[in-house]
Design brief:
Elements: H1 2-13, E1 19-22, H2 35-39, H3 45-55, E2 60-63
Parallel strand pairs: 1-2
């Protein structure tokens, strides 16, 4: 979970990047978290750290969806 946090921060600092687009694997994308993965984290506070990092971005954050878009 630390890698996505660092990737967001790196992209935000990179002056050549104008928009940050999140995408996922598989046939559909869900904006919610994978609860099974979150329950297996050694330090659950990293989920909060990720949300804080995302909320502090100075660039547009969007998603690329495949499949369901509810």
């Amino acid at each position: 979970m630390e890698e996505p946090i660092q990737a967001l921060q790196d992209a935000d600092r990179n002056k050549e990047i104008k928009v940050i687009i999140l995408s996922g694997e598989g046939k559909s994308f869900c904006a919610g978290g994978d609860l099974d993965t979150m329950l297996q984290l050694a330090d659950p506070s990293v989920v909060n750290q990720y949300m804080q990092a995302a909320s502090k971005l100075t660039k547009v954050l969007s998603d690329r969806r495949r499949g369901f878009a509810d």
